[in-house]
Design a protein that fits this description.
The protein is α/β, with parallel strands linked by helices. Helix content is 39%, strand content 19%.
Length: 268
Amino acid sequence: MSTDVQPSAWSGMVPVDDTALAVTDTGGPGTPVVYLNGQFATQGHWRRVTAELGHGYRHITYDERARGRKSHRSADYSFEAAVRDVDAVLAARGVERALVVGWSYGAFVAAHWASRNPRRALGAVLVDGAQPHDWLDDAMEQRIRKQFRQWGWFLPLLRPTGLAPRMNADELARCNIELGRVARERELAPVLDAISVPTRYVVASGASLGSRGDEQERIRASLTAVAARNPAIEISAKVASNHGTILKKDFRAVADAVREVTAATAGN
């Protein structure tokens, strides 16, 4: 924190660019932790992790653009906008340094933010995401576009629950295709190699929504080389749950990774 005044709990909207994000901040004197969601997720997905960690941390969660029930739509759903939003939320809450925890899409955002902000990042926990792998090709791109067109009929039914983004099928497909480009070895490996703060991976098992066969496990295998190259990065746990259930079934492993990073940064 940039002030000695203990922050109070707060919930509200944070303006950024052409939109506004729904943010919750538990306040308190603990280590600030900002949680970054998956594309089909809300800040509610972190409730088990934050409850497990308890009052020793200051938990800051938010719903990304067009996610959840309250965050507004935007003209920009790019990956770079998602990284900028981390800074906007932290600035609005008066937080200079924070530990970033990201799941799925949020893990990529967390990795980029930690890599770009070595003096502001206390550390990072990357939950089943940010694995460098060239999984996007022309066939996969077409598959993604087709998949979201097929899902288009029922996504509006989920939006009142906050579980589906308020984005059309084309916007969702573009976000996922862009993520495939961000994940490419030549793009992501230098980002991970540049991370200088303690970073821990928590890795799921099995498939994720839309994956086939052992695709997801082949992607995860890239982390062995990542950890071998960068001593700041370690694999904290490989858990039994799959990509979609990891925050529900293995929240303790995620919380343990946060504690590991906190211990590694003690005194810094």
